[in-house]
């Protein structure tokens, strides 16, 4: 209420009591950081009279209701006044001088104000933020007999619920980049508490070690992908933002190539000729990688899996998988060496001599028969395709006579006529093949007969 009205009411009471000592001086009182004018702590009245001061704090919530108490019993007279924080103006809100409560216009700026039945308590419905401040109830008891004066200081703090937060993200959601997330709240009485939550694709929810309204990430990781939302709370309520999906783009990583069937050697992967072989390329990437296959630098396939049915020996070589992220325009590749093992094939035997008469076909000579002159030099060369390369063993009439691809006889004799066999062996595959020729040694006398 205004100072003038307060003095008028006190003057009325004083006239009824025939004593003007009821008019107290008003001086400011500080409550925390808020300054309000209030009566002095000493009031000169009458030794038989009593002046009491009461301080209470009440918390209200915007748009809700609150009750401000003025004693436990109904006084004979009372005046409610209001003072905004940071001002010294005392404005009357409602008073009752014995003829019923009179609500002032200022009450509409505070909410829907009524007096609680059979009391001097004030009820405020649909509380407005402007009601935040100091309410003072001056209550007068027993004014016809032994007057008593009570001052009830009610410090009303009007709190605003936190509004639903809005989660905003700025930056590029790419691995290694920078990113900001801002939890924005339009309304709410502080202090406001912030909790950040991260939900993975597996629905695992964790609280982030952040308590501010803004999260700054200077090195984004791929495992940051997931749903995010912030939870804000104050002394009134708790609200949660809508979930926002954060999709971190990355990759492709270096590809991994799985070969099936998987057999390795010191040179890389190996496979047997005519077997089926599958090569599967995988590279972590978001969005998922696209794959290209190359054989000795020539593109041969599109897709993560390369299947070769009944691979041939000419399939030996380098196989490269190129993983490509079209969104980030990035790529990575990996190359493996695949060796096709085979053989040995059937050997080929080449016979050389100055006087060798090759492939004499007679009724008594077998096919592939060779002849040579006695005392002349004869060389037999055995060749067979094989991978790994084959080892060669020579046999004369089933008896081993030499190891190596070439058998050389410097001066052949007639008793060396017979079957010469070359055995080609692939020790890695534990396989072998052989070929036999017949060599006849003639002396000069035989030639003279022809």
Automatic annotation (TrEMBL):
It comes from the Eukaryota. Gene3D superfamilies: Immunoglobulins (2.60.40.10). It holds the Pfam family Ig_3. Residues 165-241, 255-337, 347-438 form the Ig-like domain. The keyword Glycoprotein applies. Keywords: Disulfide bond, Glycoprotein, Immunoglobulin domain, Signal. The keyword Disulfide bond applies. PANTHER family: CARCINOEMBRYONIC ANTIGEN-RELATED CELL ADHESION MOLECULE 8, V-SET AND IMMUNOGLOBULIN DOMAIN CONTAINING 10 LIKE 2. This is V-set and immunoglobulin domain-containing protein 10-like 2. It comes from Oryzias melastigma. The lineage of its organism: Eukaryota, Metazoa, Chordata, Craniata, Vertebrata.
